[in-house]
Protein 1
Amino acid sequence: MSKNSEYLIDRENKQYEVIIGLEVHAQVTSESKLFSQSSTKFGAEPNTQVSLVDAAFPGMLPVINEFCIEQAIKTGIGLKAKINKKSVFDRKNYFYADLPQGYQISQYKYPIVGEGKVILDMPNGQKEIGIERLHLEQDAGKSIHDIDPNNTLVDLNRSGVALMEIVSKPDLRSPDEVNVYIKKLRSIMRYLGTCDGNMQEGSLRADVNVSVRLKGETEFGTRCEIKKC
């Protein structure tokens, strides 16, 4: 890292700049799930907070939790973001053992919250990080691999819990900026009461999108998405 706080990678007499964007998944502070009345309380016995909707029984129809909508809008205001008058839920189809429906109800083209910004206080001054969007989606369940040596167990208590996915623009340039950004997001949501930020309980998680380019170039390199555990 150079003296002016740039985070650069030296390789074969060339310097590369790191481009970072984050997809932060923040669990909405709500007593019930996004599309059912099941409890969201952490630490309950496995599979004791699962409704027929959460378990994807045939014929079950989701009903939106109005309070989760309000929480997303409140967060959007805290991020100085555009609140969209029209938002649409879509199905994101993929197979996963702890995703009973075989799809996730999420948002993409028409999210509830549009572009915003977060101001970081860095040692060398303030930096603005753009927010691409905030959308609502369901969480999946939890696969447990360390109880039975021969089987994977599934706990669906978390299935259907409301998440706010906050997608940043590729404006971050160092691990230090990522650290400050996540802490700032967490403090905003905790102040607003929209997410408790308890990372040890999985309430705040992040996927990291990373690419590199030669210093001075304007085009982005090939993006690599690093998924959360």
Note: Helices lie at 66-78, 175-192.
Protein 2
Amino acid sequence: MAILGSMDRIKPLSEGQFFCPRCNDHTTYRASEVRRWFSLLRMPLMPLAPAEGVVECSLCNGTYELNVLDAELNADEQAFLENFEVAILNAMLLLMMSDGHVDDSEVQTVIAVHQKLTGKTLEPSGVVAHAEHASRAGHTLTDYMESLADHLNGDGKRLVVRSMAMVANADGRMDDAERRLMLECGRIIGLPKTATLEIVDGPPE
């Protein structure tokens, strides 16, 4: 056992919403103050460096300096963000409706994923109504993927497919029909097959 050494002490500062540069989306964050201390028998005795503020994205786990919280979106970025939120929601809803019925577990997963990404809470009745409206309008998931293909970067495409995979796994497993549909959506949206397979065949999040 080391007698002398160093250790980091972490002090929580705040939680909230911010624009994550890696996700290219509005997500939740945790801000902390990290400071390295000289230690004796794992007991902190003396600070070795000034405290540093760190912001961690709860979605991608990317870390940034505190000034990332001061970043403001211009009108074009805000419009993109709002459209991206709609794209994520519609993709999840159309996947949920692809087998012709709606499970409570799928509705709850849509609500949880949407809240994690946007910080906004949906009501179950609203989710079902939105899904039924999309179904009556004759929209299909593959058609919707075609409409998104040219408007998302690689990270955005991964996030759309990952969100759908979470809905497909809501009942504990992704069946063969859902897996084929997910692979087709990845192809249509322009995501490399290896990236789609990593999401589809990876452990449920």
Note: The longest helix spans residues 75-97.
Protein 3
Amino acid sequence: MVDTLSYWVLPVTVTVTVLFGLYKRVKVFDCFMEGAKKGLHTVYELLPSITGLVVAVTMLKASGALTIFSEVFAPLADKLNIPSEVIPMALISPVSGGGSMTFFEQVLKEHGPDSFLGQVASVLMGSTDTTLYAVTVYYSAIGIRNTRHTLYAGLLADFTTFLLASFFVRMTLY
């Protein structure tokens, strides 16, 4: 039933939208074309920011800097009872969702989703955000240059999640 419903959601939504537009005497195709033009313009404006983030993530991985940072933070993570295997995921998560997904999949393949490490990685994956990506893309799309407290609050939330993920997973095991 759910699979059948998911196939129909998009066609039904588009059909209802077009019919409602026709009912309200709106030039539906003209509105669609105007929205498509604005969308392409937005992509054009966001392309430098996205390109910069992709290059930065690629350089972090290829240069070995991510491994070095992980090794630097490993003793602190051990003292806090945080598995060191999730450090790369926590470091890359604020920058790249795809990059953190790569590390997440690696943890699940090596340790399994039901292991303590798999559960901690799952909590991190579900609780953190691509903070730098979101601030860069969304703020540049609307022309905001001063992020004020947004960046600090987002990074603090990501760090708090990193600190508390293994604590809460441990709580559920006992």
Note: Residues 38-173 form one domain.
Protein 4
Amino acid sequence: MRKILGSLRKADKMFDLIQDGDRIAVGVSGGKDSVLLLWALHIYATNFPDKNFSVVGITLKFGFDGMDFDPLVKFCADRGIEYHAYNTDMRKILEANADKDGRLPCSLCSKFKKALVIDYAKQNGCNKFAFGHHVDDAIETVFMNAIFNGKLGTFVPKMYLDRDGMEMIRPFALVHEADIISAHERNEDLVIVQSMCPMDKHTSREDVKALMESIYAQYPQARNNFVNMLTNTDDIRLWDIEDFTTNYIGPNKN
């Protein structure tokens, strides 16, 4: 956990994520990333004297059969972590919008999930909400946008949602997935609720994740370079059409 907390603290300072008096709702799916984020933020709030904030775990139950959140309830109760789980109609909504092959729409799921977390965060007096996306997710998103959308971009460590009056933060923005896995292996008390969503591990992101691992295997230095790429905004070279027309200075310009 020391490495996880070190990366979390570095991200907090670098991106100014957490202020005194914050009450942060953590979206907890039950997966390894979100469960560890909830615990890490709880430790950060209760064991660092210069931090004065509180966290509350929020789980949305989608209604998929076989998902047991009781171990997560006990995990939080044993550690004094405030935690709430809410039943939703997400499974019915997703199944009603499935494509002809029965594949559930992940983009719709993400949209509704964020909206519901915001609603329940407000109900619990929170001014911010946090998701467990890590730095490898951010890198994968760059490549997903390039491959599938023809653009370069990724999610940001924090964003203020003006319409909702809430701030979204990603405290694991500098944490590697390998360190999250290692933290779970070293802390047997950490629980994981196995996802029963039929789309789990069957998305385009999994394909890109495999692509990234093949790149890292051949070019190990790429792992750190891709992290540096995310903040290297002073050295971007792309084709801006106006630079070659309106703003271009050359032999054909007066």
Note: The domain at 2-239 is CATH 3.40.50.620 (Rossmann fold).
